[in-house]
User: Fold this.
Amino acid sequence: MDLLEHQGKRLFAEAGLPVLPSRVAASAAEARQAMDDIGLPVAVKAQVKTGGRGRAGGIRICASAGEVDAAAAEILAMTIRGKTVEAVLVEQAVEVEREMYLAIVLSRAQRVPLLVFSREGGVDIEALALRDPGALVRTPVDPLLGLCDYQVRDVLAAAALDPEGPGGADAKQALAAVVRAAWRLYRDRDATLVEINPLVLTRRGEVFCLDSKVTIDDNALYRQTDQRPEEPADEREAKARRAGLAFVALDGDIGVLGNGAGLVMSTIDQIAAAGGSAADFCDIGGGARADVVAAALDAILAGRPISALLVSIFGGITRGDEVARGLVEALGAARLDAPVVVRLDGNAAAEGRAVLAEACLDGVTVAETAGEAVRLVVAAAHGRDA
Amino acid sequence: MAILIDERSRVLVQGITGREGASHTARMRAAGTNVVAGTSPGKGGQTVEGVPVFDTVAGARAATGADVAVLFVPARFARDAMLEAAAAGVGLVVCVTEGIATRDMTEVTAHLARRGARLVGPNGPGLITPGRCSAGIMPADVFRPGGTGVISRSGTLTYEVVHELTRAGLGQSTAVGMGGDPVHGLGFIECLELFEADPETEAVVLIGEIGGDDEERAAVFAQERMTKPVIAYVAGFSAPPGKRMGHAGAIVEGSAGTAADKKAALEAAGVPVAAAPADVAVLLREAHTRRPSS
Assistant:
């Protein structure tokens, strides 16, 4: 689950990471109120779950009330990379001496968190690694040992803060504290990403996290009880989530449901390769009990009308005839307008296909192989015979 | 031989008194598995499916010599169950459970690596050496003994591909479901290495999906280290970025982890990539014809 900047900063503040005074505002009037509380100058920043908001004009530094009004109104009306801006963060603005980069991110390949620090903020890390390797730290954090002091010293060495510059030795201590707090936040809040970009040293010698990017592990939400996943914007995804189904809304017109994530992904690929386009990804898990299939159909049909439906089931442990009885019950009750192709293969598939044939459901065609099923459903969606 | 498990494996089922634990114990035994013990804290002394139940893994291991542990334990208790198995000296831990927190998995994989224990899973179907041993939930009826090694990130896709292999007369040495989570135990590379060294395995099928770079790294390994033919299939070409496609690890992040990139990397390394699951058997036959195994 990705957090918005202001949600991440709330966790930052709780973890002892230095953040500037700020308020969330959903209107220009609220932004003005926030400005009155904080004092000028302020930064008005779009709250949106996508990168590149700065380049898109989603961050404005304001020195007057009029500028705050205008910036808040304009940013709140923006859509950045397809995402509507629903709120702005009004934050005290500071004069920046230096921008740095700090992140702790899960490395899937190494199976550990990786601490990444760069002396320069807003740069291409790979390019910097070639140009100035000493300015970069990339070090795995042992999940059982945690962050070690030598790793913090590595960051301080790469930062090369000027002892005669703003903040002096205090700035160095502040940076060390940021690295340690970021690690604690990553571990204690079950994050898979904590990114501070930029992490700044101000002209007055203070260290602040100017932005936050935090991802919380969905599998850990049971113990991160203050974190609530937001309701999906798509009605179909919302319905499927309530039914406990793995579901992703897509743009096409052929409804798809099947058992197993890989199998459904593969089915969608084959539909695309045959010239069709899937309306959804829907994994009903092992077996195909009638109530589960019914919930899946309910979610699929909550969107734009589909032109055809493909049900792809591979009988593993669950026998094909048991699966077929569940399908007959659910499809019979759903009374679909669109043509349906059912593909049943695997364990006791012949018996299962016999059950389907016997039920003689209107508009339901039974296919033996995945390839045949895909051809049939794409043809049906285009309103022609295969 | 095969890899990881065979008829000599002594399997222990953690959580054997639960519904899933009991029913899969019966299935594993029917598939020829030597299930020697089960555990369930506080339920030592009972039997399930004729298998003696112990309170602890250490107790079960001392009494039965179990060397493979299969877990049917809910996500929030799985970390502890895996650590217990490793602490008791079990050499292979198989975790089927879906939904385990990533932090737990980083800790478990680090700890098991230190103890020299191997992990298969989590969030996968386990593994099977057809006719000899099944440690997990793979439907044994779909499999036949033979010379094809299979390693996969997806359960049902494995069954689908294996079903076609079996139909085409291509049996399997061992099939390993590495699981769909971002942090998991044995991966493509470790299994490719084991299959390469296994005299019973003649060729390897690799089944990948979007997310991470396991397939890209496997491609490099296959090119540099494998003398046996490797055939691949990758799912998720139509997956939109930023959406988890069922599995926690099946997600295209930014522009990283796409199926197209994985296919390109595999093909560049000389690994043919099938267009559909049913085509894997066809490509495998071609590979056998081109390069007859010794």
